[in-house]
Amino acid sequence: MAEQDYYEVLGVPRSASEADLKKAFRKLARQYHPDANPNDPQAAERFKEIGQAYSVLSDPEKRSQYDQLGHAAFAAAQSGGAGGPGGADPSGFSGFGFEDLFESMFGESIFGHGGGRRRGGASRGTDLHVNLEVSFEEAAFGTTAQLTIPRTEKCSRCGGTGAAPGTKPRTCPNCGGAGQVRVGRATPFGQMVTVQTCPVCHGAGRVIDQPCPDCQGQGTTHRRRTLKVQVPAGADDGLHLRLAGEGEAGQRGGPPGDLYVELHVKPHPVLRREGTDVISEVTIGLAQAALGTQLEVDTLEGKAQIHVPEGTQPGTVLRLKNRGIVGLNGGNRGDHRVVIRIQVPTSLRPHERDLLRQYAETRGESVEGNGNGGVLRRILGR
Question: 327 with 355: CB under 8 angstroms?
Fold first, then answer.
């Protein structure tokens, strides 16, 4: 089977610069790294192809030979030489760990600074995410809520060092505190230095001779902590609040993570929210809509009087100025909007029907002689 073109393997044109090659290799190496694809047996082979392609194309001399002769430029090395038939690899890739190859090329983990192997020294604690439920009124006016969370905290006995009181960790003598050691390996093309986790301190960069009896040398303990959360006035459903430094404890003296609180606002039985406005609905009778009336409605601050003018139509919106919700971070306060609904009776007494029929006659409206409520639907345009 013909070998795939190295430029095609990396997905770059033949004119690609050194930076383009490096960028393409980083992206593909992270994508096909075997540690990130434990259930894909072909990932390792694909990763090896990517490494071979980059090793050749990133070397100016090898790239020049490859551009002129293709894979044939390395046929001699593949068919004989140091490794025997099929034993030598023009890239010098075979025989090396995947992570070691990447680190030897770029001096960093395949997964970058945010993941993969931990280097020596302090590390920041993990962020925590929790939910908090508040009432409609608490979100509107703001409140102080209490939240109990389980988390890791710095050990109070050893102060987070992991060492027993009266002692302290010492710098790892094997790696000098770096958490990593460099190991030289012989390849068909000379000596290659790779970076590995220190086997003595396991990447911590320090050695604890007498571990703290409370945390067993970890420097952290598990506890449940009750915190106060300030919910600002105008908070809406889904708002995220950040409590700096209230997440998991850091490792080896590193800073703690943050706590993110997501608000969930419980629905109100009669009120709802649109921006900073509060919306409610009230149902009145036909006579009240035609002649006008005074109504008592529920608001965020209790009961309030509202005037319904005569001739009010279904769907009319009446406003109570500045009775809504304050804008988040001190914005202007919204209004309370009252939507008017008009109720059509489903049954009428005989004298009520007569009165409505007389009203219809004075208005010149044609009504049904029988059937309750027909005239009202005509009056309301229904």
Answer: no
Centroid of chain to Cα 154: 26
Looking at residue 75, its pLDDT comes to: 59
DSSP conformation class of 82: G
Distance CA 126, CA 290 (A): 64
* C-alpha count within 13 angstroms, C-beta hemisphere, residue 241: 27
CB 104 within 8 A of CB 29: no
- pLDDT at position 110: 43
Record the tokens describing residue 340, joined without a space.
């008017």
CB-CB contact of 332 with 276 (8 Å): yes
DSSP symbol at 120: S
Query: CA-CA distance, 295 to 307, in Å (whole number)?
Result: 6
Let me know: does 244 contact 124? Beta carbons within 8 Å.
no
- Residue 326's Cα: distance from chain center in Å? 27
Low-confidence ranges of the chain (pLDDT < 70): 1-2, 34-36, 38, 74-121, 187-191, 369-382
371's enclosing H/E stretch is none
Separation between Cα atoms, residue 320 and residue 277, nearest integer Å: 10
Which amino acid is residue 126, in one-letter code?
T
What is the per-residue pLDDT for 334?
95
Q: Of all residues in the chain, what percent carry a pLDDT higher than 70?
A: 80
Work out the end-to-end distance of the chain between its first and last CA atoms, rounded to an integer number of angstroms: 79
| pLDDT value of residue 189 | 58
With b for 16 or more beta-carbon neighbours within 10 A and e for fewer, the 46-65 pattern comes to: bbbbbbbbbbbbbbeebbeb
Q: How far is the CA of 277 from the CAs of 14, 43, 341, in angstroms?
A: 61, 55, 19
pLDDT tens digits for 289-300? 999 999 999 999
Q: Are 38 and 16 in contact (CB under 8 A)?
A: no
Are the C-beta atoms of 50 and 9 separated by less than 8 Å? yes
What is the reported pLDDT for 175? 87
Element (H, E) at 292: none
Q: Residues 227, 147: contact at Cβ < 8 Å? A: yes
CA 94 – CA 78 distance, rounded (Å): 12
* Alpha carbon distance 288, 124 (integer Å): 66
Can you give the pTM of this predicted structure?
A: 0.58
User: Strands of 128-134's sheet, edge to edge?
Assistant: 128-134, 259-265, 240-243
